[in-house]
Amino acid sequence: MQITNYRFWILIALVFISGFSQGMLLPLLSIILEQNGISSSINGLHATGLYIGVLIASPFMEKPMRKFGFKPIIFIGGLLVILSLAIFPVWESLWFWFILRLTIGIGDQMLHFGTQTWITATTTVETRGRSIALYGLSFGAGFALGPLMTRLLSIHQSVPFLVSAVLSLLVWSLLLLLRNQWPEHSVDPVYPTSSVQRFKQTIKIAWVAMLPGFGYGFLEASLHSIFPIYGLRIGHHVDILALIIPCFAAGSLITQFPLGALSDKFGRKSILITVLLLGSLCFLLAALWENSIVALFILFTLAGMCVGSLFSLGISYMTDLLPGNLLPAGNLMVGIMFSVGSISGPFIGGYFIDVFQGVSFFYFITSILMLITIAMLFKRTQQEQIGGFNL
């Protein structure tokens, strides 16, 4: 038990430093590119490099993990991130930095896939919600602290990259203390052995558990990239918007662990539907009171408290639905859906505010959350069909 706890906290530390590096990189590169006169459209397109890297890497990681185990995947992923961060100051070029972003996306996906699958494969059903909540909490905390590194630009442009690389190296070195493990291998003919078949079976069993990951990626990326544009259009000052947006992340940190504990007690699906409905209500009220700064501060915080845990709750729900043999494929699919949401959110959100001028951006967010809620309400899983009930 002591070894298990020791391993768990090292994995949590790795997730924290990954969130920290991502949280630093997004605003840091945006500021530098803006100061260098790069257009906002190119700047935004450049930012998708990380998520494109995630999508490129995702289909090719399940087989190596089954062959080599969790530790080598995390080891290589962390190394890619550290080296890329350290190389940023070497050459200031738009295309070179885009390639480094792609590489960090690949490395981060390897790191997250390895840690996420290792944690979900070794936690008990009774503590799964809390364990995954800590996973989400650690990443969220790192992501929230990362932007503070932009203050180091006043010293020198290379300082934030190098400091982040050193911090990542220190935490990554803890991985050397862990003994490697492998995901569960089942020879049960009910569950297929080829990667394509495993992905098909995973989608068939647990597609509904992939929706929260998509929703969270869609929501987070839209709020961070499109809401500032919309907020300026309806008359809010840029300094106020910069303070409103972090309220969503702050709210998610408050309730991440309590919601995980509640999902252990009352069931993952019930809690997911509840927070989706409450989150939809928050954004609906935001649409009605979008001109009030105080209301937006309060509602962004409340929305974060409700739907800021969608990703971690979705992972726990996916783990409940799938057998151990399909967990690697399930974790990959959640990561892919998150990336699809992160890439499509800003694009569709930007299209919405351009085409439907005069219609609140928050109605768009509400409609996405309600579609996910409806899908979860009417989809019955195999466990529910066997048990004869529908949560």
Q: Could you characterize the architecture of this molecule?
A:
The structure is a single chain. With 391 residues, the protein is mostly helical. It contains 17 helices and no strands. The chain has helices at 2-35, 40-47, 49-57, 62-68, 70-87, 94-122, 128-145, 159-172, 195-225, 227-233, 238-266, 268-288, 293-307, 310-321, 327-355, 361-378, 382-387. It is globular. Residues 186-192 and 386-391 have low confidence and may be disordered.
Tell me briefly what this model is.
This protein is mostly helical and 391 residues long.
Q: Give the distance, in angstroms, between the N- and C-terminal Cα atoms.
A: 33 Å
Helix-strand pattern: HHHHHHHHHHHHHHHHH
Tell me how many strands there are: 0
User: What is the typical, i.e. mean, pLDDT?
Assistant: 83
* pLDDT < 50 runs, ≥5 residues: 186-192, 386-391
Number of helices: 17
Query: Sheet bearing the most strands, described?
Result: none
Radius of gyration over C-alpha positions, nearest whole angstrom? 20 Å
Shape: globular
As a percent range, the share of helical residues equals: over 70%
Strand content: under 5%
By helix and strand content, what is the structural category? mainly alpha
